[in-house]
Amino acid sequence: MEKILNPSVKLKYSLDQDDYKNILALKECCLEKENVTLKLELDYKLSRSLNESIGINKINEFMFYNGKTLIGYVGICQFGKETLEVNGMVHPEYRRQGVFTRLFSLVKDEWDKRKSQQMLLLSDRNSSSGIHFIKSTGAQYDNSEYDMFLTGEATEVTTPKPLSLRRALNEDAKEIARQNAIYFQVNSSDLILPEEEEKHGTEIYMAEVDQSIVGKVHLEVQNDVGGIYGLGVLPEFRGKGYGRDLLMKAVEKLKEKQVQQIMLQVAVKNSNALNLYRSCGFEETTTMDYYKLTK
Questions:
Q1: Which residue from 239, 200, 237, 204 is spatially nearest to 218, judged by alpha carbons?
Q2: Domains identified in the chain, total number
C-alpha cells in the first residue's frame, strides 16, 4: 500500500483531454489488478464536453489526486433521465485509505443539490470491494445487466415484409422518446436529438416496414468496439421476426465500420431479449449490478 502524502480533490462539470487521459490510465491500473468491468462512459462524456456547452452549475466529475497522480475517480451520468448513475474506482495501491468514501460524500452533496430523487450505484458483480462499499451506503439492489459480445453467427431470419433502417432525424425525437418509454420505462422531458447525438458518436436508426416505423436502434463505436443500444420493436409488430432482423441489420452496420468486437447490454430479467440475443450469436461476459438510493 502506498501512502497518500499530498492529497487534493478536483471537482469539474465536464472532462477535458487531460482528465480523460488520467482517468484512462487509472482505469488500466485497476483492470490489471482485477478482471472487472467499469461503466464510466468516458468517450461519451468527452464528446459532449467538446461539442456543447454544459451547465457549469452541476458537478459530474470527482477526482482524487496524490500529488500529480490520479488515484481515485467517481463520475455521475444522467443520460437525460431523472435518476443519476454513479460508478468509480480507486488505484489498487491506495485502497483502504478513505479515498472512495471521500469522493462519494462529495457525490452525495451534489445529489442533494439536484432534483433527482434516486441514484443508482453500479458495480461489476465480480468486484467484491465495489459491492461491499455499495451495501455499506444502505443502497438496495435494484436490477442487473449483462454485457454480451458477439461470438457466433445467427440463424436465417424471415419476416412477413422487408425491414429497412433509416437514419433518424431530429423530427423523430418524440417518437424515440415514446419508444424509450415503452421499452425501458424511461420518461424524460429532455428529448434525444438524433442529429446532435451523431456529433457525439451515436447513430440512431428508425426501423421501418412499408415506410411505417416499427422500432429503432442506437449504434456507437468506441475503441474499435461497436455497441448496440436502445433496440426495440413496437408491441404491435412483435412475434414476426422483426426484432431478429433489426438486430442483424445493426450488426451489419457495425461490421461495415470494421470494428474488432460487437457488444450490447441487456437487463438480466428481460428473458425475451436475452433469448433473442443468444440465438443471434451473443454471449454473456460480465454482470453489472445496480443498487438504488432514494432521498
A1: 204
A2: 2
Which CATH number is 160's domain given? 3.40.630.30
Mean pLDDT of 269-276: 92
Q: Are residues 113 and 177 in the same domain?
A: no
pLDDT at position 268: 95
Residues 63 and 73 sit within 8 Å (Cβ to Cβ): yes
Domain that holds residue 186: 149-288
Which residues on adjacent β-strands are paired with residue 291?
121, 141
| Residues whose CB falls within 8 Å of the CB of residue 23, separated by 6 or more in sequence, listed in order | 15, 40, 42, 63, 70, 73
pTM score, whole prediction: 0.86
For the beta carbon of residue 30, count every other beta carbon within 10 angstroms. Answer: 18
The 10 Å CB-count burial string (b at 16+, else e) for 157-187 is: bebeeebebeebeeebbeebbebbeebeebe
Residue 55 has pLDDT above 60, yes or no: no
Indicate whether 44 and 67 sit together in one domain: yes
Closest CA to 147 of 262, 241, 292, 32: 262
